[in-house]
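SAMPLE LOG
Freezer: B-3
Tube label: C17
Construct: single chain, 344 aa
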Amino acid sequence: MKGKRCNVAHTAHVRMKISRVSGFVLCVCATFSLGLPGKAIAAAVTLNASDAGGVSSFNGSGNWSDGNAPSAANDYTASSNYNLRTPTTNANYTFAGNSLTLGNGTTGATLLYKGTASGNTITVANLSLNKGLVSNGSGGAASFTLAGNVNLLSGGGTFDMGAAAGSILVNSTITRSGLLSIQDSANTASPTGYVSLTAANSYTGGTKIISNGSLHVDADGALGTGNVTLTSGMITFELGATNNYIADTAKLILSTGLVTNAVNLNFTGSDTIAGLSLDGGTTYLANGTYTASALDTLYGTNAFTGAGTLTVAAVPEPGTWALMLTGGACLLFLRARSRSIASV
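STRUCTURE (predicted):
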């Protein structure tokens, strides 16, 4: 009986200790939760109007809905076909917001470079294009570098050489599933400026050159994994270490009526692709390796130049792969069965 009373007293004592410890832990947790701020959720800020001449919302309060200059605490969006201008002074600028989204998938918006000299870098660490456009609006042939990261959303994005056909050197890494378009809004038949892709990219939505845009593919893997379509303008392949400019599973589709030297294979060696069309995708060339001169003969004009070659090695469609694998499995089964029967 005495032992039982001792056990009861001991149990009560332990429970009291646990209660005190629990209370202490709760007090400590409450103190920390009240005294230490949690991770802030970025606020959404929108551009309310286009930047007028001499006004820049890129690093100033400009036309932002909160009336403040961009800060890392906020996410920024521009749509309604508004223009977001960079400063006109010749210097490097970095967007201070947590992110910047141009377009909402229905209406677009433009990041307009307004520097007047070449060599400046515009950095946006997290730039999303959802029917958005990055344009060289320098008013001359000045070039600028775009750095950071670009996300191509469902509405896609466009790099525009601008009315004066200036250059954009895109050092940004490009990801996601949207279409990338390259254009010259001046629609010059043989522009002096161009868009240069210098990073290995992973976007999957494909690349299309329109309105006499000019694209320099200056790195292996720069075109992501999607098909490449040249409707008008020019494309140059160069500076890659392994000449893997177009993904092995992607096709190069060329429209008819291209300008002289529209496709410049400016490298030594061969780039392997899954398909090559010279009529806008209606038909495709047979597997094989093609030089610029051979392609000129097939195309009918001198649209090709350069020492490089294109090797077409068509990749079977997923359904074809499935049939091949099924057929192979059946053959292995029959072979194993025949051996089993023979050994009896």
